[in-house]
Amino acid sequence: MIEREEIIGDCRLLLENCLTIFPSLTTFDAVVSDPPYGIGFSHGAGGDGIGNGKYASKFNGVTIRGDDAQFDPSPWLAAARTVVLFGANHFADRLPSSPKWLVWDKRRGLTRNDFADCEMAWTNQKGFARLINHYWNGMMRDSERGVPRVHPTQKPIAVMEWVLQETTKPGESVLDPYMGSGSTGIACLKLGRKFTGIEIDAGYFEIACDRIRKAHAPPDMFADRPPEPRQETLL
Ligand SMILES: C[S@@+](CC[C@H](N)C(=O)[O-])C[C@H]1O[C@@H](n2cnc3c(N)ncnc32)[C@H](O)[C@@H]1O
Questions:
Q1: Whose CA is nearest to atom 18 of ligand 1?
Q2: Helices (DSSP H) in 102-201: which residue ranges?
């Protein structure tokens, strides 16, 4: 039995362990995901703006489920026709070779800190390696400016839109088995892909539901508008 399920438009969100629930799900055109790939295991801390010292933030010391062990991509390699896995430079030795890696340059050569200058996603597609420049450094960003981060390894929605445009077509079904705060889901919603997201952590699941709900039905800007003053007819 599924612990919790939310349906929001074309999005199906499941609070579950993806490894146990996945075999019971229907098939998908694509798996697009950013799994926990063992940065806690290999580096002690990592990601954008988290960690120790001058880059400490509200996420300092926050652990991600599954991030204390090396990631095993094997359950996902044949899970769909298209497979895209972020963080794959951390587990490239467990992946088939691929000509088409997607590289997100998040510093654009402007700054350098103790964290990676770029993130890399492996794909199982033919074609060429592709690159996006999208600045993302704490509160200094090319998108979602002024919007607080809600997950320590949250991806920009704009980058996930680019990934989907590079690898999938409108109307296709996309699974993100490690949904986190739901960035892949929001990008799917915006681009007309059907989305299924799985998240094991109840707190992040709630956050993903909330963000996807807001993206599906943007707030009514006129809801709190005072009534129009009555027009008096001047004779
Ligand atoms: C790297 S984060 C994904 C962040 C996401 N890309 C975003 O933009 O918010 C990986 C997520 O996978 C979740 N996770 C870890 N193991 C899981 C499992 N077995 N099943 C489902 N979710 C899992 C973690 O709780 C974490 O939120």
A1: 17
A2: 157-167, 183-191
